């Protein structure tokens, strides 16, 4: 059993697998070290799960689909799920600390976004499950047709590092609500909060075998994706990983839910409320070090306000503090890993080569002996085919472009393989509605960004995803319908 007590000196935890209600090491004994990206200190070790651990986890998850979990009345299952949310709130400080140690994100952000939302994911689906219904049709005097809902089965949940507990629980809560059993694979970069979560699940009354975690790298995820006894994979991560998972899952025809990368546009018309726009654009550009799939990294500004917008956004960016995630006034923490830090810096070199101008930033932040800090960066002057405009950087880097007409901006906005989200700014609601309908993304926010209601369809089009999460949409993925017809 790992110690999940977070020490005052901010030491992390060792992460081992959780299978059939027990914390277990890998049979191979293989582990790797988990570094704190803000200090480069080692937070603990992480077990590497192989085929043996995945097989064991899938086998116990399959068995747990029957018996206590299947027989649990929905009201009781709802109470267990609600209790997980309650216990997350009880351990709020500890979980937020672990999340910031693992990711490098500011502690205030872990508290106000990641951990609050993780609890809310369980509270929301605890309520949702008690109201969800199915279809019934009466066909004249011939027949009655009705559908009954069953769990999808054993579901693999494969997760990224940017919002570790938030995104893992966004899958786990509906999976449990619909009666599934799961094998989770947290990101190897951020394994700590997932390790604590299973302890919480046990305390809340989730029967052994229902929730299992196997740690490891991509190979561990691949072993889950290709496993013949796994019925579905819910994956959030890079588009190219989604392609690999789809291939691995094809021979066993699994159900797939994909939340993938983005290259999201912000479109700002000259009539927008500029104070409001700038304030939100700072968030959509740099919150969580720009490591949010929804961050707006391509900013299109109508020409009459272009100069003023660039000047004001740059001035606001200058006020941002890059620093220790545990200092209350830090706006931008450390990038999540050395590898990702180098990737983002390589795009800043590409921007230079492609003739871009850095209005601010453009390099590693100064004054840090250790850790992976990058200055919030605003680029102008890049062409539409620039790699920095077309490829997902996933860092505190945005590109601003002027536009003259609606048609022109829509052409540029849609000129991408990605299709996750967009943020559109105008006080003309006819235009807002018209333009929003022509943007090729799964979500459009008008005069706001990342404003969430957990009932709404969340997800991307094109290379940004397959399927939607949220309310009924999550339930559709995590359940199978059997239609029953009674001849009258
Ligand atoms: N659309 C969304 O809702 C959303 C949300 C958050 C992040 N993202 C995307 O996630 C990416 C950042 O996260 P990341 O770098 O952790 O993504 P990633 O694809 O590198 O890794 C995600 C997970 O997949 C696992 N994995 C890697 N190779 C695998 C394979 N071959 N088979 C099975 N599993 C494998 C990893 O170990 C990890 O657990 C960005 O592209 C971002 O846009 C999307
Ligand atoms: O980084 C990606 C953010 C994803 C957010 C959600 O999945 C959500 O708000 O439900």
TrEMBL record:
The keyword NAD applies. It comes from the Bacteria. PROSITE patterns: ALDEHYDE_DEHYDR_CYS (PS00070), ALDEHYDE_DEHYDR_GLU (PS00687). One of its GO terms (molecular function) is oxidoreductase activity, acting on the aldehyde or oxo group of donors, NAD or NADP as acceptor. Pfam families: Aldedh. Keywords: NAD, Oxidoreductase. Residues 23-483 form the Aldehyde dehydrogenase domain. The keyword NAD applies. The active site is at residue 259. Belongs to the aldehyde dehydrogenase family. This is 2-hydroxymuconic semialdehyde dehydrogenase. It comes from Lentibacillus amyloliquefaciens.
């Amino acid at each position: 059993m790992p110690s999940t007590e977070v020490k005052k000196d901010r030491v992390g935890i060792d992460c081992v697998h959780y299978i059939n209600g027990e914390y277990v090491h890998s049979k191979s004994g293989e582990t790797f070290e988990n570094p704190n990206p803000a200090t480069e200190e080692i937070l603990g070790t992480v077990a590497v799960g192989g085929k043996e651990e995945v097989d064991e986890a899938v086998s116990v998850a399959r068995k747990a689909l029957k018996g206590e979990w299947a027989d649990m009345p929905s009201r009781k299952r709802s109470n267990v799920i609600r209790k997980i949310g309650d216990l997350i709130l009880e351990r709020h400080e500890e979980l937020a600390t672990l999340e910031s140690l693992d990711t490098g994100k500011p502690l205030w952000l872990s508290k106000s976004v990641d951990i609050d939302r993780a609890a809310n994911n369980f509270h929301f689906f605890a309520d949702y499950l008690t109201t969800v219904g199915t279809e019934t049709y009466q066909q004249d005097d011939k027949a009655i047709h009705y559908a009954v809902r069953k769990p999808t089965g054993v579901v693999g949940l494969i997760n990224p590092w940017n919002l570790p507990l938030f995104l893992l629980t966004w899958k786990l809560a509906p999976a449990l609500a619909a009666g599934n059993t799961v094998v989770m694979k947290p990101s190897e970069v951020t394994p700590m909060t997932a390790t604590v979560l299973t302890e919480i699940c046990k305390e809340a009354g989730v029967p052994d075998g229902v929730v299992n975690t196997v740690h490891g790298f991509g190979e561990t995820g691949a072993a889950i994706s290709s496993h013949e006894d796994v019925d579905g994979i819910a994956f959030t991560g890079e588009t190219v990983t989604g392609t690999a998972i789809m291939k691995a899952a094809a021979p066993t025809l699994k159900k797939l839910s994909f939340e993938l990368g983005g290259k999201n546009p912000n479109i700002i018309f000259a009539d927008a409320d500029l104070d409001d726009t700038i304030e939100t654009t700072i968030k959509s550009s740099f919150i969580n070090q720009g490591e949010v799939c929804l961050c707006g990294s391509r900013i299109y500004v109508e020409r009459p306000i272009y100069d003023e917008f660039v000047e004001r956004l740059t001035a606001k960016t200058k006020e941002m503090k890059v620093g220790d995630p545990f200092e209350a006034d830090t706006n931008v923490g450390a990038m999540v890993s050395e590898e990702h830090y180098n990737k983002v810096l390589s795009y800043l070199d590409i921007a230079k080569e492609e003739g871009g101008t850095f209005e601010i930033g453009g390099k590693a932040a100064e004054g840090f002996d250790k850790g992976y800090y990058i200055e919030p960066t605003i680029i102008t002057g890049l062409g539409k085919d620039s790699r920095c405009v077309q490829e997902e950087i996933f860092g505190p880097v945005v590109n601003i472009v002027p536009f003259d007409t609606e048609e022109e901006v829509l052409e540029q906005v849609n000129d991408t393989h990605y299709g996750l989200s967009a943020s559109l700014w105008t006080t003309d609601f006819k235009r807002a509605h018209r333009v929003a309908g022509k943007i090729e993304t799964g979500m459009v926010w008008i005069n706001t960004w990342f404003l969430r209601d957990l009932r709404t369809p969340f997800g991307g089009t094109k290379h940004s995803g397959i399927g939607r999460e949220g309310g009924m949409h999550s339930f559709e993925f995590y359940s199978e319908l059997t239609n029953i017809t009674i001849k009258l």
